[in-house]
């Protein structure tokens, strides 16, 4: 908190000293303005501290399951010369192995240290990229400063000599506070994207979901701790999945496509409440004390990747959103693709290769689901979506039954990477024609 407050003070004074030097303000006026902004600066600092504390608390909820990736992150930071586990009294690989056998993860203080070093490393990598210079990220600079400065000195803020450093620090803090210390590291492992590409994709994902407003609304609720942390982890999970989805889009024309999808998403969220089977989750959240409109949004987070695929299909193929959504969720129910997706999400990620394989399986299933949806709707513009779906399923009764028997077999087993790979191959080959 003290360091954060000092950073704000220094950066604000650098800005105002430029204004004074230009003759647009006297030193007395500068000092009066600084005094007037004290409370807002304090709130900006406290907001950052609350978010960091919440990040550590959320990380503790998953400390045991994330221990393998935390261990890999520690190794990577140490190899890069950024971190000394001995100096920081962090566990070595032997201790981590023992904790894993005991089902334990890093402690709160250890996670706090890891988060701090992950932020320093990410900030350094962002500064080495062109990301802080992108016009779309300018708001991360302006929102660092108190309201009075944003309104009166917008041009001067844009010329701040440390603007790149401020933007990089703001982004590193926001991304890792919201998503956890290993977020960028894990996605870099699984997608081969650079930290700058991942952070840029996260900014798109956050805007698509209205993440800032959702975080604020959820954090303001007075709920049982397990309920509040559960909703925040659902939002974190959804943002991570959408970030991956954005990274898969072709870079050329990505911003235009995302803007179009952002316009379509609110209507699809409303449809999803009746089509995707999230009504039960909404009821549970309302019973726990979440107000209805917010409960509806949180309940649909599980379906957000499906909604984005539906929006993309409607946009790219000039199809009605409701028709695409009807077929998409109908296929999900009839073919039990949601169940298969849950099996994939439950696969282990104890090492990088498992994490990459799990991510590839999930991507493949979404791609196949979208392809089947298009197949059902192909050439059927005049027929109601429900009619076309029923006819398509009837034409493939034997293939659908075969996939159902295969899934019944999987239910009686402990699915691993090999079995799920075979299941995906069967879905693709049996239902392709």
What does the secondary structure layout of this molecule look like, with pairings?
Layout: H1 2-21, H2 27-36, H3 38-61, H4 67-79, H5 85-88, H6 93-102, H7 108-127, H8 139-142, H9 147-152, H10 154-158, H11 163-179, H12 183-191, H13 195-209, H14 211-220, H15 225-248, H16 254-275, H17 279-287, H18 292-299, H19 304-317, H20 321-335, H21 337-345, H22 352-377, H23 385-395, H24 397-411, H25 417-430
Helix pairs in contact: 1-3, 3-7, 3-11, 4-7, 7-11, 12-22, 13-15, 13-16, 14-15, 16-19, 16-20, 17-18, 19-20, 20-22, 20-23, 21-22, 22-25, 24-25
Describe it for me?
The protein is mostly helical and 433 residues long. The radius of gyration is 24 Å and the shape is globular. It starts with a helix and ends with a helix. The protein contains 25 helices and no strands.
Overall radius of gyration: 24 Å
Question: How much of the residues is beta strand, in percent?
Answer: under 5%
End-to-end separation in angstroms reads 61 Å
Measured as a percent range, the helix fraction is over 70%
Summarize the structure.
The chain is mainly α and 433 residues long. The chain has 25 helices and no strands.
């Amino acid at each position: 908190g003290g360091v954060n407050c000092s950073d704000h003070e220094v950066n604000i004074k650098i800005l105002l000293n430029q204004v004074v030097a230009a003759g647009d303000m006297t030193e007395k006026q500068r000092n009066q303005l600084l005094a007037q902004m004290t409370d807002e600066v304090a709130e900006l600092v406290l907001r950052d501290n609350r978010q960091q504390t919440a990040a550590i608390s959320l990380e503790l909820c998953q400390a045991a399951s994330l221990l393998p990736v935390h261990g890999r992150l520690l190794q990577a930071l140490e190899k890069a010369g950024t971190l000394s586990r001995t100096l920081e009294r962090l566990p070595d690989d032997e201790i981590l192995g023992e904790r894993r056998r005991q089902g334990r993860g890093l402690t709160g203080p250890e996670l706090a240290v890891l988060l701090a070093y992950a932020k320093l490393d990410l900030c350094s990598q962002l500064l080495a990229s062109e990301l802080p210079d992108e016009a779309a990220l300018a708001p991360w600079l302006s929102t660092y400063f108190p309201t009075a400065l944003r309104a009166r000195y917008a041009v001067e803020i844009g010329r701040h000599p440390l603007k790149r450093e401020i933007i990089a620090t703001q982004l590193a803090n926001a991304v890792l506070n919201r998503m956890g210390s290993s977020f960028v590291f894990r996605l870099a492992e699984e997608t081969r994207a650079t930290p700058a590409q991942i952070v840029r994709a996260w900014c798109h994902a956050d805007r698509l979901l209205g993440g800032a407003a959702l975080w604020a609304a959820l954090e303001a609720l007075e709920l049982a701790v397990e309920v509040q942390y559960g909703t925040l982890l659902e939002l974190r999970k959804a943002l991570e999945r959408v970030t991956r989805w954005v990274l898969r889009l072709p870079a050329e024309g990505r911003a235009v496509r995302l803007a179009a999808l952002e316009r379509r998403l609110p209507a699809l969220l409303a449809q999803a409440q009746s089509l995707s089977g999230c009504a039960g989750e909404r009821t549970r959240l309302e019973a726990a004390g979440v107000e209805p409109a917010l409960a509806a949004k949180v309940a649909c987070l599980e379906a957000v990747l499906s909604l984005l695929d539906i929006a993309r299909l409607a946009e790219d193929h000039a199809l009605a959103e409701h028709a695409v959504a009807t077929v998409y969720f109908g296929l999900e129910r009839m073919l039990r693709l949601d169940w298969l997706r849950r099996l994939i999400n439950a696969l282990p990620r104890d090492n990088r290769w498992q994490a990459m394989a799990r991510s590839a399986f999930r991507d493949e299933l979404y791609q196949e689901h979208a392809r089947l949806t298009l197949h059902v709707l192909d050439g059927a513009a005049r027929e109601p979506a429900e009619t076309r779906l029923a006819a398509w399923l009837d034409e493939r009764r034997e293939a659908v039954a075969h996939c159902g028997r295969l899934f019944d077999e999987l239910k009686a087993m402990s699915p691993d990477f090999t079995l799920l790979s075979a299941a995906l191959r069967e879905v693709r080959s049996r239902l392709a024609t």
